[in-house]
Amino acid sequence: MTRFAVVCAVAVFAANAQTSYLLLDATRKTVIAIDWRAPDVPVPVGSLVKPFTAITYGQRHRMRFPVYECTGENCWLKTGHGRIGLAAAIAHSCNSYFRQLAADVSPADVWAVVDRFGLRGPSADCDRDTLFGMGSAWRLSPLEVARAYAELASRRAEPGVAEVIEGMRLSASVGTAAALRSALPGPALAKTGTAPCSHSPRAAGDGYAVVVYPGDSPRYVLLVQVHGVVGRQAAETAARLLPVLVGAR
Length: 249
Ligand SMILES: [Zn+2]
Ligand SMILES: [Zn+2]
Prior knowledge:
By secondary structure, the chain is α+β, with helices and mostly antiparallel strands. It has a single domain (3-247), classed as DD-peptidase/beta-lactamase superfamily (Beta-lactamase), CATH 3.40.710.10. The protein has eight helices and nine strands. The relative contact order is 0.18. The strands form three sheets. A five-stranded antiparallel β-sheet has the order 2-1-9-8-7, with helices on both faces. Strand 1 and strand 2 (31-35) form a beta hairpin. Bound molecules: zinc ion (ZN) (2 copies). One zinc ion is lined by residues 197-199, 203, 206, 227-228.
């Protein structure tokens, strides 16, 4: 792509008020590129908190993760995910799996773990669903979320984290962020989320996608928010945006 084409492509995204993004250097956690009106203002980020809830559970259960049955009740996929383990539950963002997992962790447990990733924890009296990103009670700033994923990537070989990373790898190949697979020359790690809209006027929700790239040797963390869509569609936007942003460097 010529430099002119790269500039034009980024300008198209920048002119689209529906999309916000920030690109971090995965190692330094510094901002490489950003188009986000208020990246320090906490917003609900939906299932982007699930990896940290999983690590919390793992730390209380010797890093062993259960297999649960998702019948579709309490899950966005009404036909159900069937028997599902942690990696697939992350890849397909199974709410039923995480609702059962979250029954075995407390807000204080989650707070202690996410603090090590630079995140604010949920309030001590929050309900179980808040612990895996439902609703809007647990709010995180886009910058702290992107930096927490950079920290997650740096710890990818640690027990518990490795299982989460495997789920993110699956997400970017066959899961809710599968749009990335054909958009990039190598594998990526990803997580998607859908949250209550944080804009005015309100839409039904906002879609989020976080992408760590390259998956084997992370150099970039991209966080994308798209107004009025679900997380899967935000991943499609990330799949178009990331090659442009990375290629521009
Ligand atoms: Zn499910
Ligand atoms: Zn919105």
